[in-house]
Amino acid sequence: MTTHDGQQPTADAALLDPLAALRTPADPPCDVYLTGTVFLDIIFTGLDSAPVRGTETWARGMGSSPGGVANMATALARLGLRTSLAAAFGDDMYGDYCRDALDRGEGIDLTLSRTVPGWHSPVTVSMAYEGERTMVSHGHEAPPPESAFDGEAAPECPPPARACVASLVPGHREEWIGHAARRGSRIFVDVGWDDSGRWDPADLADLEHCEAFLPNAVEAMRYTRTDCPRAAARALAERVPLAVVTLGAEGAYAVDGRTGETAEVPAIAVRALDPTGAGDVFMAGFVTGTLADWPLADRLAFAGLTAALSVQEFGGSLSAPGWAEVAAWWQHMKAYAGTPGDAAAAQDPSALHRYDFLDGLVPTAPRPWPLRRAVPTIGFRQA
Q1: Which residues pair with residue 244 across a beta bridge?
Q2: What letter would DSSP give residue 292?
Q3: What long-range pairs does 2-8 form, CB within 8 A, spacing at least 24?
């Protein structure tokens, strides 16, 4: 596998396998399967305010990266999970770039993906300002995959996998979710905004197949007709074994409907540059901890940490942290906690003890924190 700049990964960037102690010869080759639309994301950062009609606005930073479902796939792969993605790629330069970045750059299995002749890549332009983002997207639905594999039978989809990740569409069923669940895959889902305004729990029929549901606080309260995100989580835990509600700057709250266990973890204090993909990174962190059989509170803490690290960089997939970033952050926090003017001083010392479980997981960081991964271009030509 090569990195996005075409170089072989250095030893300090080697992936830690969080499932190493659990793996057996009988395991499926894939840890996590997901499917969806890959966008080319072009992200502008460093905007002081929203663009004004009739004027030209200059951004102080920009980045380009595979987006859409690629955000989640990259976040999972960087945390050491063997990730399989089924997606369509355009046969334009954008599609070539996205496919190369995910395959060679991130080591994601694209066997179930296809390049569609004559179909152009969907594109999203994202502008980050005032801690939020505004997006403009363009694309067309990919044609059906009948001829995508040169006359050969399409690979089994979904493949056997420890877990599958999906985003529910209100009122719409995905047959593959039920199929995967019946084959033993653990299903983790979030949900998109309900443009119909119905917010009817009956529109989330695929929840019956799911192990965990991870909506944000607004979505959770609207679906449960409650005015408190914690009450919403408890109500959702009656429909799905594990309900996790993200609370933004307050952290996250979870209820295990099987055992009655609850957990709440505050958010890490960071200076956010771009929130694009933070929800995907949170999901990836939570899936990683769940598959590794960590305690519920540790899973919440790890998911929140990975999301916090991601918003300090621009771009969705480019900003997803790997174990090198997690290790570097933890070593820095332990070394400089309480130092005036340092990033560690912004953290509550008692809250930092919540992350002591990382001592048994991460290696000593070989590089200083924060680290920088993102590059502001679609790709340089290799010499």
Answers
A1: 254
A2: T
A3: 2/104, 2/105, 3/105, 4/101, 4/105, 4/375, 4/379, 5/375, 5/380, 6/382
Any residues with CB less than 8 A from the CB of 77 and at least 6 apart, and which? Answer: 83, 106, 107, 108
Count CB-CB contacts under 10 A for residue 251.
18
178, 209 Cβ separation under 8 angstroms: yes
What is the DSSP track for 178-211? Answer: HHHHHTT-EEEEEE---TTS---GGG-GGGGG-S
Cβ neighbour number for residue 277 with a 10 Å cutoff:
30
| pLDDT at residue 10 in the model | 36
CA distances from 296 to 15, 68, 256, 290, 301 (A): 23, 28, 8, 8, 9
Q: What is the DSSP letter of 87?
A: -
pTM score of the predicted model:
0.88
Mean pLDDT of the chain: 86
Reduce the DSSP state of residue 331 to 3 states and report it. helix
> Measured between alpha carbons, how far is 79 from 18 in angstroms, rounded to an integer?
8
pLDDT digits (tens, 9 = 90+) for 183-214: 999 999 999 889 999 999 999 999 999 999 99
| Cα separation, 112 vs 99, whole angstroms | 12
Provide the 3-class DSSP secondary structure of residue 95.
helix
Residue 159's CB is within 10 A of a number of other CB atoms, namely 19
Q: How many CB atoms lie within 10 A of CB 39?
A: 26
pLDDT tier at 288 (50, 70, 90 boundaries)? very high
The pair of structure tokens assigned to 304 is 């929140």
pLDDT grade for 9, boundaries at 50, 70 and 90: very low
Q: What is the residue type of 85? A: L
SS3 category, 335: helix
What distance lies between CA 375 and its chain's CA centroid? 19
